[in-house]
């Protein structure tokens, strides 16, 4: 299941704060801040999708992530590779390295990372 852009932005704040009450989340938004009801709706949808949960303290809820940021990003990236690059990481790597205007130093850094991963296998 995926998050909408608005849900993804809110999820970034939850990952950053690790645990947060509504007031904490609202403080993270730049001005103009969204309405409390808007954030409450997003939180309810995200809870329903299984991305977050909460602990109740009286009438207050403290929200926390159920999925790690790295896991979400990995799933998202794998979906992009599958849908846009015919499930070929080589096609993705070719596109990424040729279309993102990486400097020679950045390409060398990527090569070092790949070489290091090859040694592990």
Descriptive account of the structure:
With 121 residues, the chain is mainly α. It folds into two domains: 5-65, Orthogonal Bundle (Arc Repressor Mutant, subunit A); 69-120, no CATH class. Helices cover 64% and strands 12% of the residues. The chain has a three-stranded antiparallel β-sheet. A hairpin with a 2-residue loop joins strand 2 (52-57) and strand 3 (60-65). The longest helix has 17 residues, at 104-120. The model has no long low-confidence stretch (mean pLDDT 93).
CATH class of the largest domain: Mainly Alpha
Secondary structure: number of strands = 3
Strand order of the largest sheet: 1-3-2
List the helices and strands in order. HEHHEEHHH
CATH architecture of the largest domain: Orthogonal Bundle
Shape: elongated
Distance between the termini: 31 Å
The named CATH superfamily of the largest domain: Winged helix-like DNA-binding domain superfamily/Winged helix DNA-binding domain
Mean pLDDT equals 93
Number of domains: 2
CATH topology of the largest domain: Arc Repressor Mutant, subunit A
Secondary-structure-based class equals: mainly alpha
Instruction: List low-pLDDT spans.
Output: none
